[in-house]
Amino acid sequence: MPRRSIIRPQGTTDRSAYFLVDGWLASSMLLADGERQILKLHLPGDMLGSTSMCVEDAIDTLMALTPVTVRKVPLAPLGQLIVTNPRIAMFLLLSAQKERVALMDLLASNSRTSPIARLAFLLLNLHQRLSIVGQAGSDELEIAINQEQLGDIVGLTPVHVNRVLRQMTNDGLIERHRRQIRIIDFERLRELSKIPLRDMSIASSWQHIVA
Q1: Which residues contact 91 (CB under 8 A, 6 or more apart)?
Q2: Domain 6-75 belongs to what topology?
Q3: Nearest-angstrom CA–CA distance, 138 and 200
Q4: Please, which residues have CB within 8 angstroms of residue 62's CB and are 6 or more apart in sequence?
Q5: Torsion angles phi and psi, residue 129, rounded to 5
Q6: Topology (CATH level 3) of domain 113-193
Q7: Which pLDDT does position 211 carry in this prediction?
Q8: Which residues pair with 38 in a beta bridge?
Q9: What helix, strand, coil percent values describe the chain, rounded to 5?
Q10: What is the pTM assigned to this prediction?
Q11: How many other C-beta atoms lie within 10 A of the C-beta of residue 40?
C-alpha cells in the first residue's frame, strides 16, 4: 500500500491483526480536539493492532508512513491457531510484553528527560530495531519519516527537533545527510539517553517452551 494509506482507522470494528512485512507505519490516536498523537513507530517484523484485540472498536489508527507491505490475519483463524498450537499463544504473550516495555521506556523518556536525551534514545532504539531486520549498517540508519513526525513521537516541535539534531551534529555525536544518519559516538548517545537500550531477545527461561 502507498504512503499515507490508512490500514485500519480508529473506532472501526476490524477483528484482525496485521503483520508489517516492509516499510514504516505509525500507530496513532485521534484526540478530542482533533489533534493526532503518534503512539508508536512500527518497523518490519512488528505485529500491528494487537492492542485492540481486547475491545470491540479499534483504539488507534494504523497509517503507512512509507510504502508498506502488510499481511492481514483475521482473529478467528488466529484464535484457532492458538488452540491447536499453544506455542503461538506464548509468542503472542511475549510479543505483547515487549511492546509494553517499549511503550514504558518511551513514556519514561518523554516524561522525565531532556529534548536531546529523547532524541538520543529514539535514534539508538531505531538503529537497534532496524539492525535486527538488516536495514541498518553498523553505525548508519535512514530515518524514513520527517521532523514533524519525529517530534510527535518524542513530544517536541519540528523546529526543536531540527535544533537538537543540529546540536548533536555540532557536538560530534552524529553526521547527517538528508535522512541518512551516521552515529559517530554510541557511548555518548547512550549516556545522554538516560534509558537503557534493552536486549529484547527471548529470555532464557522461556526458550525451552517456544523453541
Answers
A1: 210
A2: Jelly Rolls (2.60.120)
A3: 18
A4: 6, 7, 8, 18, 25, 26, 27, 42, 48, 49
A5: -70, -40
A6: Arc Repressor Mutant, subunit A (1.10.10)
A7: 60
A8: 28
A9: 45, 20, 35
A10: 0.89
A11: 18
The CA distance from 107 to 44, in Å, is 22
Q: Any alpha helices (H) in 41-179, and if so which ranges? A: 75-84, 86-112, 115-132, 147-154, 158-170
Nearest to 74 by CA among 22, 21, 8, 25: 8
Interstrand relation of 69-74 and 16-22 (parallel, antiparallel or unpaired): antiparallel
| Domain ranges, ordered by start, for the chain | 6-75, 113-193
Give the model's confidence band at 210: pLDDT under 50 very low, under 70 low, under 90 confident, else very high. Answer: low
The residue count of the chain comes to 211
Contact yes or no for 28/37 (Cβ under 8 A): yes
